[in-house]
């Protein structure tokens, strides 16, 4: 049996000097790095790279910053400098020619790029929360917000608890402060991620934390989601709040009214992984006893346009043709909007490796093809039903020239459907589409739009995964 061995995630050490603003910058950088799969190192010795966030406000603070850089160079050697002293890059480089990169305050993208270069992230579909393309710098108009680390479950195919440990939630006040900063800096969409978002706050005993505006927040998924939904962009818009990796525990029902109120996107990413009770039991999946189909119907009754995304594993040891057919029938009934599927693969250290009755590679492949075919058909039908409607779209990319000036070879890139090649096109996403993993909305005649703009779009056409339309 081929068992996949996982690479170790790179570790970042952080020395944060300076004012509370600098600390918020550090938090924000760490959030992105954590979302990218980096581990934090509490000491110099265990770090693959050390980030020094400096202060340059007073001479004494500058001296302290230079000392901190010197110490990091001496103790570790691989150092990236950021923060206010980064404005004086020559001073730093003169004294420490070995620093790997120097960036200034609020240059999040540059710092994260420097860390990526010094200690490249190791993409792994077995442990990553962010799609591989998301490891590249996410544009400012959307950000991943990691709310906890680790997991209390022990799914048979998963090695995350042994790598990341048990659930460890971040304080809700710290998450909200960071979310506020992100939104103030141009983020229009927050993608809430963790291994198990619905378990958020369990380890904090769902304690209540005071906020600086005099209100308070409970360390609980629904309370945190409600607070996030109360944020406003500098233009007064409500940012999109998208919840990923939510298990269907009973309390998830309480997040659905927040969708009806427009505080949270009508979107749930629930990694069901299978439908057959026998396979789910063998997988040791959490919340598998819930009557999921009935709950999906109830959610759709409250929020008719809710989009449910899920992923499934096919070919888990012991999965029979009857189990697989059960999954297909269930999917047909559940009518999920977005489906990702994986062929089971043993990962070093996973309990499932020792289970009897492995499924052959041919069967896995065949089942994978069949589940993808069914989900593409369901998706195509659901998208076709949107033709003629008007929906909200968040713009991700805008073409830099009209499609008819690109020549025949380039005309398809980011362009509207071939049937409507007119003018400058743009590509965005609807509320039902998470970046990188779901579909897109391709626009024609989109001149004047910018990435990060919200627009109303009339849908004119659809295919298996994408929509095509025109801004109103
Ligand atoms: S819920 Fe299961 S699959 Fe998800 S991280 Fe925890 S153990 Fe792994």
What's the arrangement of secondary structure elements?
Blueprint: E1 11-16, H1 20-35, E2 39-41, E3 49-54, H2 59-75, E4 79-83, H3 89-95, E5 101-102, H4 108-118, E6 142-146, E7 148-149, H5 160-164, E8 168-169, H6 172-184, E9 189-193, E10 208-210, E11 216-218, H7 221-228, E12 240-243, H8 256-260, E13 267-269, H9 277-283, H10 292-302, E14 307-314, H11 321-334, E15 338-343, H12 361-384, E16 390-398, E17 426-430, E18 441-443, E19 454-462, E20 467-471
Parallel strand pairs: 1-2, 1-3, 3-4, 4-5, 6-9, 9-12, 13-14, 14-15, 18-20
Antiparallel strand pairs: 7-8, 10-11, 16-17, 16-19, 17-18, 19-20
Helix pairs in contact: 11-12
Bound molecules: iron/sulfur cluster.
Keywords: 4Fe-4S, Cytoplasm, Iron, Iron-sulfur, Metal-binding, Ribonucleoprotein, Ribosomal protein, S-adenosyl-L-methionine, Transferase
Protein name: Ribosomal protein uS12 methylthiotransferase RimO
Main location: cytoplasm
The CATH architecture of the largest domain can be named as Alpha-Beta Horseshoe
What's the shape? Answer: globular
Largest β sheet strand count, sense and barrel closure: 5 strands, parallel
Number of domains: 3
Contiguous runs where pLDDT drops below 50 for at least 5 residues: 406-416
- Helix-strand category: alpha/beta
CATH topology (level 3) name of the largest domain: pyruvate-formate lyase- activating enzyme
State mean pLDDT (0 to 100 scale).
87
First and last CA, distance: 56 Å
CATH classification, class level of the largest domain: Alpha Beta
Distinct compounds present: iron/sulfur cluster
